[in-house]
Amino acid sequence: MPPIEDISPAPDQDPEGVTVDRFGQKRTASGALILEQGEVERGLSEDTRATLDAGGFFDPTAFDDAEVVKTKAYVHLMPGLPNEVVYVGLGLILLLSFVLFERYGKRKDPRGTGGGGSRDDRPYWRFELTRFAWLKRALNSRWVQPAVQLPVVIAFVAVIVCGLVGSQEPGRNIAPVLTWNIWWIGLIFLVMFAGNLWCFMCPWTAIPDWVMRRSLLAVRKIKSFGLKYPRFRLWMWPAIVLFGFVTWLEIAYDAANRPWLTSIFGIFMVLLSWLCLVLFERKAMCRYVCFVGRVSGQYATMGMLELRRRDNAVCRSCETSDCVHGREGVGYACPTSEYMGAMNDNQYCTLCTECVKSCPHDNIALNLRSSGADLLHPHRAKIDEAYMAILVFIVSAFHGAAMIPLWKEWETGLRGWLVDHDLLGTKELFAGSDGGVLTFTLMMLGCIFAPALIYWLLCAAMHLASGRRDVSIRKLFIRFAYTLLPIALFYHLAHNATHVFWEWSKLRRLVSDPLGWGTDWFGTARAPLTSLWEPETIWYLQVALVVIGHAYGIFVAQREAFRVFDGDKKASFRVHLVMIVGMIAMSVLSLWLLAQPMYMRTADL
Fold first, then answer.
1. Edge-to-edge strands of the sheet including 305-309?
2. Range 426-434 average pLDDT
3. Which of 244, 323, 431, 505 is 20 to 30 A removed from 352 (C-alpha atoms)?
4. Which of 249-253, 276-280, 302-306, 421-425 has the lowest mean pLDDT?
5. Per-residue pLDDT tens digits for 11-26
C-alpha cells in the first residue's frame, strides 16, 4: 500500500523530478520538502522553533497571517479519479437517468399517497428496535444519555485543552485532526446510518444543561427567561448564517491548521448553547441556531434510524400530549417542540428519547428503516428549510472546490486582476495575506449566490415546462430543494471518503504526541502516512456513491413532481425531465471535483 508521501503534486517539467506545490515550495518526486536554506526556508527562526517545541497558547506564531499559516502547512496532494473511472461514472449517470425516466413515464402515480395525506397511508420498510426488551429499558432509563454524553464531553474538553496549550505549528497538534478529520468527516457517515445520533451525545448542549439543572439524571426545570423564540421571523436563519460564517472562517483562516482557532470554535458553540438555554424556552439552539444540527437534520431525512409513533389512533385519542409537553418527574418536554402524533420526518428530532420516557401509552418506537423514507413520502416544506438544503449542496461542493490546486490559481488570478485594476480602492485594502482573505471572500460569495441563481432559473424552466400557472416558481423552488439532498449527501460521503482513507494515519501519529511536544507514548509518532485502502478501491467507491445519490435524487424528484402537481401526469412528466437535466449537471460536477487532485484537510510535517 503506497505511503502518502509518494503522491506528488503536478510536476514542474523539471527533468530531475522536482515539483512545486501550491505555496511555491520545492519538493522531491516523493513529496518531501526541499529546504534549500534550512529552517529559514520555512520562515521559522531557531527561537521560533524552540517556542513551537515548547508549545503553549501564547505561541507568537498562533496569530500568524493566513497565508503564513498555509505556507507552513506542508499539505500533500491526494490523487483524483483517473479519466477512465470518470467515464464509467458518466456513463452510469446517463444510463440511469434514461432508464429511470423511461420507467417513470409508465407509472400512473408514484406518489406516497393519493393526495398529500399521511405518510402512514403508504408504509415503508421499518424494523422496530424497541421490541428488544433490553433496548426498551435502556431508552426509558435516565442514565443512558448521560452515560453516552460523559465520555464525549471529556473528549471534547481534552480537544479544547490540546488546541490551546499544545504546539500551534500545523500538523503537530491533535485538536484539528480530531475535529476536522475525524469528527466532521465521521459525522456525515454517522448521519447516513444513524440519523441525528450526534445530537443525542452532543457536548455543546450537555455541559450547560447539566450545570443549569445541577444534575445529570434528575428531571429539574431550568431557571431561564423562558422567552419564546421568534420563529415566524427568524426560523432557522441564524443556523444558515452561522453555517456560512463557519465555512468562511474554516477555509479563509485555515482553521484546520490553527489549533487555537479550532478550540475557540468549540468554546463558542458551548457559550452559544448556554445563551440560548438562558434566554429561550426548551432548546432553541438545537432547532434554530446550531448549524451542525440543521445540516445533520437535513441529511437525517435520508438516515436509517427514526423515532416514530406506533399507532396513529393512540396519538389521536391522547389528551395530554406528554410527548411534546413532558411529564413531571418522568421526562422533559421535547427540546425541539416536535409532536409525535404529527411528526413525519427526522429533520428536527434529536433522538433524545424524552418522548419515549414521557409517553404514558408506550406508543413511541425506535425503528431501523429504509434510507430516504422522509423524502420519498409526503413531508413538510418551508422556505428556510429549502434555503438550508440549497446551501448544504452548495457548501459541500464548495468545500471540494476550495481544496483543489485550480482554486489557488483562480484565487491568485482574481487577486492580481483586482489589484491591477484598483477596483476595490487602494492596495492598503489588501492588507494581511496580500488580499487573500478578501479575494477568497468574494469568490466564496460568488460560489454561493451563482449556484442559487442557477437553481432559481432551473425552477423557472420547470414552471414554463409544466404549463401550469397555478404552481408558482416559489413553490417549485421550495419543494424541489429537498430533492438536492440525496445528491449533496452522497457527494459529501464520496468527498469525505478521500480524507478518511488517505488521512486516517495522521491520528495514529498524533495519539503518541497529541500536544506536539516531542513525546512518543505509543511508539507511533514517526509512523508512515499510508492509505487505509488501495486508491483503486477508493475511486470506485466514490463513483458508486455519486451514482447512488443521483439515482436517489431522480426517485425523490419523481415523487415530488406528482405531489406538487397533484397527479397531473403531463405536467409532472415535463417538470421531472427538466429536473433530471439539472441533476445530471450536478452529478457531473461532483465527478469533476472528485477527479481533481485534492489537498489534505490538515497539515503534515
1. 126-128, 364-369, 305-309
2. 49
3. 244
4. 421-425
5. 344 445 565 544 444 5
Check residue 177 and report its DSSP letter: I
Q: Which three cell numbers stand for residue 268?
A: 463558542
What pLDDT score does 28 carry? 52
pLDDT surpasses 90 at 1: no
CA distance 546 to 2: 25
d(CA 186, CA 422): 44
User: What is the spatial distance between Cα 328 and Cα 132, in angstroms, rounded to a whole number?
Assistant: 27
CA distance 351 to 208: 19
**For residues 456 and 438, what is the distance between their CA atoms, to the nearest angstrom?**
27
Q: Any idea what DSSP says for residue 285?
A: I
CA angle 338, 340, 346 (to 5 degrees): 65
Q: How far apart are CA 501 and CA 79, in angstroms?
A: 12
d(CA 175, CA 179): 6
Task: Tell me the mean pLDDT in the region 252-279.
Answer: 92
Q: Cα separations (Å) of 409 from 22, 438, 537?
A: 9, 15, 30
C-alpha cell at 242: 452561522
Phi-psi sector, 282: left (phi>0), alpha (psi -120 to 50), beta:
left
- Tell whether the torsion through CA atoms of 42, 45, 50 and 55 is positive or negative: negative
- Residue 354 C-beta-side C-alpha neighbours within 13 Å: 29
More confident residue, 336 or 52: 336
Q: Which residues does residue 155 pair with via DSSP β-bridges, in sequence order? A: none
What whole-number distance in Å separates Cα of residue 188 and Cα of residue 145? 21
* Distant-in-sequence, close-in-space partners of 499: CB < 8 Å, separation ≥ 6: 78, 181, 185, 600, 601
User: How many residues does the structure list for the chain?
Assistant: 605
Residue 430 predicted with pLDDT over 90: no
Residue with cell 425503528: 367
Confidence at residue 434, expressed as pLDDT on a 0 to 100 scale:
57
Cβ within 8 Å of residue 275, ≥6 positions away: none
H-helix segments, 467-484:
473-481
Domains in the chain: boundaries: 4-78, 83-118+402-599, 126-369
Distance CA(542)–CA(494), nearest Å, equals 5
What pLDDT does residue 315 have? 94
Strand partners, 599: 77
Quickly tell me which residue has 421571523 as its cell.
233
Query: What DSSP assignment string belongs to 344-374?
Result: -SSTT-----HHHHH-TT--EEEEEE-TTHH
Q: How far apart are CA 168 and CA 515, in angstroms?
A: 9
Q: Please tell me what DSSP assigns to residue 64.
A: -
Are 100 and 554 contacting, i.e. CB atoms less than 8 angstroms apart? yes
What's the rounded Cα separation, in Å, for the pair 107 and 186? Answer: 38
Q: Are 477 and 459 in contact (CB under 8 A)?
A: yes
**What does pTM read for this prediction?**
0.84
Looking at 1-10, 245-254, 316-325, which range is the least confident one? 1-10
Query: Using an 8 Å Cβ cutoff, are 273 and 205 in contact?
Result: yes
pLDDT surpasses 60 at 273: yes
pLDDT digit string, tens, across residues 453-483 = 999 999 999 999 999 999 999 999 999 999 9
